[in-house]
Design brief:
Rossmann fold; 11 helices; 8 strands
């Protein structure tokens, strides 16, 4: 399928008339923008005139993604910058360079993720899925927050998963030293995404901030997150057996596009596919797991994340 065909599909939402409005006056930073959901999101935003910073671990793959998009959209305003979310020093360096170059993002889409690797530690010694999926995005959001607060309809979109409903934070074994399971710790990281997005919303609302914290999930979408999973069973089940049930990345990206660009979206909204079991379909508001919205859990995760990343947000905690 060509990028034009994908872009056309993105504009057509079954049983809904919403399309992404003009974004020519907004700047987006999208993590993991070179493939899957991130690429589909970048493509549609570029088509609508946005300036998009592709924050990617592999710059060569990022440049190939840009070449694909610009071949179809020659006027696209795209820029590739290296960001390895597994290394908090690199997250900080990315934010410093962005600031030094005078880039002021309006929207941050925390999209990148890793799924079900063998137990691996990050550069700072954290379990890899928690490090990439949560801590890296927490730090990036905090380091860019003052710039976002000055933006045009500023938003932080955090991409989680329905798996957050099976997750919790293993506060006593955060790095899996005493019982690591790839999917259990993936669920922990997705729960952390959901709890972070909600706690950020709570703090923004209490502070009267113009920034909106919005959550989204893609349903069951065929991306390289499943097919490149190093654990054989995960790759077999999600990459092959269940793949006929999966929707394409252009459809899976609709909830995060809606979260990033729809005027009617409020801080604290959680968007996902509206079909059966939230696996596929047009975006709609879906319920967040009550445990992820628990105030005590949110504060505890927030305090832990500040301590592990060394990043503090320029917003007060109103208690």
């Amino acid at each position: 399928m060509t990028l034009s065909a994908i872009s056309g599909k993105l504009c057509h939402m079954s049983k809904q008339s919403w399309t992404v409005p003009n974004q020519s006056d907004r700047v987006f930073v999208i993590t993991g923008a070179n493939s899957g959901l991130g690429l589909a999101t970048t493509l549609e935003l570029a088509r609508k005139g946005a300036r998009v910073i592709l924050a990617v671990r592999d710059e060569a793959k990022g440049r190939r993604a840009v070449a694909r998009i610009t071949a179809d959209q020659p006027a696209a305003r795209l820029e590739v910058r290296r960001l390895d979310l597994a290394d908090l020093d690199m997250v900080r360096a990315f934010a410093v360079r962005l600031r030094a170059d005078g880039v002021r993002p309006d929207v941050l889409v925390n999209n990148a993720g890793v799924m079900a690797p063998p137990r691996t530690l990050s550069a700072q010694g954290h379990e890899l899925q928690f490090a990439v999926n949560h801590l890296g995005h927490f730090a990036l959001t905090g380091l860019l927050f003052d710039l976002l607060a000055q933006g045009n309809d500023p938003r932080v979109v955090t991409v989680t998963s329905t798996n957050h409903r099976q997750g919790r934070i293993f506060f006593d074994d955060l790095a899996g030293e005493h019982g690591y399971s790839p999917m259990r710790f993936y669920n922990q990281s997705k729960f952390a995404n959901a709890a972070f997005g909600w706690e950020l919303h709570r703090r923004l609302t209490a502070a009267g901030s113009p920034v909106r914290s919005v959550l989204a999930h893609p349903g069951y979408t065929a991306t390289n997150l499943q097919t490149s999973a190093p654990i054989g069973l995960v790759k077999l089940v999600f990459g092959r057996i269940l793949s006929p049930l999966a929707q394409s990345p252009d459809r899976g990206a609709l909830p995060q596009l809606y979260a990033a660009a729809a005027a009617e979206v409020d801080s604290g909204h959680f968007l996902g596919p509206g079909g059966p079991a939230e696996l596929r379909g047009a975006p709609k508001r879906v319920p967040l797991a009550p445990a992820a919205a628990d105030a005590q859990t949110g504060r505890r995760l927030w305090d832990l994340s500040e301590r592990l990343t060394g990043v503090r947000f320029a917003i007060p905690d109103a208690g």
